[in-house]
Design goal:
The complex is a heterodimer of chains A (215) and B (532). By secondary structure, chain A is an all-alpha fold. Chain A has six helices and no strands. The N and C termini of chain A lie far apart (53 Å). Chain B is globular, with a radius of gyration of 23 Å. Chains A and B meet through helix 1 and helix 5 of A and helix 6, helix 7 and helix 8 of B.
């Protein structure tokens, strides 16, 4: 049983009228932030579209060098983690602090799992010399293969950084949750990190077919 | 004369520099921004003086060709990223936005402080670039030259990247503040037009700046790892960089001008004691400019080799910007009609904007015409055009706003006579410097050139001499503003008879802005209903 009375009562910041006002403002702010993230990744998607338009055959050849099973596994991991994140927020809404901690931990395990798979993928590419132009040493089947790996590392790398930031945020949430900061009347940080996490998940859902399932 | 007892305000509420560095008060953050923006303006101005001095005659005078390239790059980068983008929103806007909508603070005060520190952090990288082999690419960092030059492009672009986040956080904060923090009764159409302008600005900051961020990041990685996206030698496309860059940087010129237009709307009502003409049209035109701003970036690429059809469409779309801009100009002039015009310093700057921005706007239409631009592209005509818009527009409105809200910010009055003299020097100096450059441009003088044909020498020399007049104006201003802080007359709460909410609280305001949350039951400029 979780102790319902152990939570720390949240104090609304002085410039807000009430807790609802504060929550709504935070949520709008988070959505606007996610819009900036969409634009941030957006330019990279445009760069991807440009390169694929310029070198369509090279992209088809290049995607055979990626392992779609690894990509699919990571897709599965991230979708699962989005589910556990939702459940973590839900648990806080119904005052189940223990469950919140469990679901957050599950989300973090998924995030680490994603990074481990990513590590093996990156290690293989680096081993074979499939790297951006300056470091590209592999035997190139196609003249512009380095461009594919340039944009591949750029996009998956930026996404990976977002996953790592997410791990940090979840750790922060776990700590605050352990201190009893979240309960049915206050779970703003959980909700916001949740939104961020779903965004990170969504970016991957676009990256997976664009890189692993070409042609 | 006995001074009234010292009142508590946001300046003397807490003491010591630590209380400033850790403050969450939007007013203090605005003032700190103001200080560093003024320093940046001085620095950028110093570079301008130096490079104009070099152009006094053809050939070498003070600097080598490479140093000259570095000077105009630093002038551009400092003025754009450190001065003009944050100028009005982050200093005046930060100070005023919560006051004008009757709020206690912005929605996210800690994010506001973080934005300020990001600004300083980004500035450190820019300054580092200056001392460690300053970039010589121009502020636009065009590839492939920016990939190959040996100067410190990375630290300058990293600085601009960080400054971008500072700008995004300000914009995000303002959007949420305007949506969520308005006082009871402050409906959207009762907001001061300054707030509308800041809202439109914030939308652009939030939508455009991330694209600059990723573009500069790509450029940095291009230099470090050579991913080849912008490098033709590796199969990439340098024009893609130009598209990415201007997708931000064209909307960014509206980040620079929209808040200035907001200031203009405030100035014209207060100094004509009249309700604004066409409130809704001015409000909507701010949004229209924000939207159209995203559709015109290709007019910077008319000679880059983009497709002819794209160029024609971009040229046509560019004309559209003139409509909402003209709506504003006409409405301001109509507001002045039969008004009780009071030629105080803020209104002098209002008039300066009106004249100079109109010239800048018309020449902008000229440059937006595809056929004419092919001739005038990369000449001094372009330089003159954007200085008329940016300095003749934004800087004049910034100075107008600074004088207008100075008593509110610091509780002191400045010398009206000295302000007039400074204004006169600035107006005369500005036109000497930049009107001359229209002539140089039409005669074919290309921009960014270290030396030139002898026939251009008289005009170049005249333009350079104008920078000295301009400098005298700014020095006078610096002197009387500092003097006002030290010995200025104590300002009343509402020295100009303004009607917006910031004039209903004391000067300088208390930390919480208002003693009681204001309740709003009318529009912001209803002079016909109120007798001042």
């Amino acid at each position: 049983m979780t102790d319902l009375n152990a939570h720390k009562v949240h104090e609304v910041a002085h410039h807000f009228a009430n807790a609802g006002h504060e929550f709504d403002s935070a949520k709008l702010g988070m959505w606007v932030f996610l819009v900036t993230e969409v634009l941030f990744f957006g330019a990279l998607f445009v760069a991807y579209a440009f390169l694929r338009w310029a070198y369509p055959e090279m992209f088809v050849e290049a995607h055979h060098l990626l392992d779609w099973r690894m990509g699919a596994l990571n897709t599965l991991i991230l979708i699962t983690s989005s589910f556990t994140m939702v459940m973590a927020v839900r648990s806080a809404q119904v005052n189940q602090r223990g469950k919140t901690a469990a679901y957050l931990s599950a989300t973090m395990v998924c995030a680490f799992g994603f990074m481990v798979v990513k590590f093996f993928e990156y290690a293989a590419k680096i081993h074979h010399g499939y790297l951006p132009a300056k470091f590209f040493t592999a035997h190139a089947v196609s003249e512009h293969l380095h461009l594919f790996f340039g944009i591949y590392f750029m996009m998956t790398g930026l996404h990976g950084i977002h996953v790592v930031v997410g791990i940090g945020l979840i750790l922060w949430l776990l700590r605050r949750n352990a201190k009893g900061h979240f309960y049915s009347e206050f779970y703003t940080p959980l909700e916001m990190v949740g939104l961020y996490w779903h965004f990170v998940d969504l970016v991957w859902i676009f990256l997976f077919p664009l890189f692993y399932l070409v042609g | 004369m006995s001074l009234p007892a010292v009142r508590t305000d946001y300046i003397n509420a807490t003491k010591g520099w630590k209380s400033w560095l850790t403050t969450l008060d939007h007013k203090r953050i605005g003032i700190m921004y103001l200080l560093f923006i003024a320093i940046s303006f001085g620095l950028g101005g110093f570079f301008a003086l130096a490079l104009r001095m070099e152009l006094l005659n053809p050939g070498k005078l003070l600097f080598t060709a490479k140093q000259y390239n570095q000077l105009f790059t630093l002038h551009g980068a400092v003025m754009v990223f450190l001065f003009i983008v944050p100028s009005i929103p982050a200093s005046l806007g930060n100070f005023l936005l919560p006051l004008q909508i009757g709020a206690k603070d912005v929605a996210f005060p800690r994010m506001n402080l973080m934005s300020f520190y990001l600004y300083l952090f980004g500035a450190v990288f820019c300054v580092y670039s200056m001392v460690a082999g300053a970039a010589d690419t121009g502020w636009t960092f065009y590839t492939p030259y920016s990939i190959t030059t040996s100067t410190s492009v990375i630290s300058m672009t990293l600085g601009a990247f960080i400054l971008g986040f500072s700008s995004i956080f300000t914009g995000l904060n303002f959007i949420v503040t305007i949506h969520k923090m308005r006082a009871p009764g402050m409906t959207w159409f009762r907001m001061p037009l300054m707030v509308w302008a800041l809202y439109a600005t914030a939308i652009i900051q939030v939508l455009a700046t991330p694209v600059l961020g990723i573009t500069l990041l790509l450029l940095i990685i291009e230099r470090v790892a050579g991913i080849g996206i912008f490098d033709p030698a590796l199969g990439g496309d340098p024009v893609l960089f130009q598209h990415f860059f201007w997708f931000y940087s064209h909307p960014a010129v509206y980040i620079m001008i929209l808040p200035a237009m907001g200031v203009m709307s405030e100035l014209v009502t207060t100094f004509c004691k009249k309700n604004i003409f066409g409130y809704k049209m001015i409000a909507y035109s701010s949004l229209a400019i924000a939207i159209i701003s995203f559709l015109v970036w290709g007019h910077h690429l008319f000679v880059s080799g983009q497709s002819d059809y794209a160029a024609m469409i971009f040229s046509l779309l560019t004309y559209l910007v003139a409509i909402p801009s003209a709506v504003k100009i006409f409405n301001w002039i109509a507001t002045m009609y039969q008004g009780e015009i009071d030629l105080k310093a803020p209104f002098l700057y209002f008039l300066a904007f009106l004249f100079l921005f109109s010239i800048g706007g018309f020449t902008g239409i000229m440059l937006g015409s595809l056929s004419l631009d092919v001739y005038l592209h990369d000449t001094y005509f372009v330089v003159a055009h954007f200085h008329y818009v940016m300095m003749g527009g934004t800087v004049m409105a910034f100075l107008g706003g600074l004088h207008y809200w100075w008593p509110k910010m610091f509780g002191r009055m400045y010398s009206e006579g000295a302000a007039f003299v400074a204004w006169l020097f600035i107006m005369v100096g500005f036109n000497m410097v930049f009107f001359t450059q229209f002539l140089l441009g039409t005669k074919g003088m290309p921009r960014r050139y270290y030396s030139y044909l002898d026939q251009f020498q008289p005009l170049h020399a005249f333009s350079t001499s104008g920078t000295w007049v301009l400098t005298v104006g700014f020095l006078i201003m610096a002197f009387y503003l500092v003097e006002s802080l030290l010995n200025g007359k104590q300002a009343p709460d509402n020295p100009w008879g303004g009607l917006t909410l910031e004039w209903t609280t004391q000067s300088p305001p208390i930390t919480e802005n208002f003693l009681d949350t204001p309740i709003v039951d009318c529009g912001p400029y209803e002079y016909d209903k109120v007798k001042v």
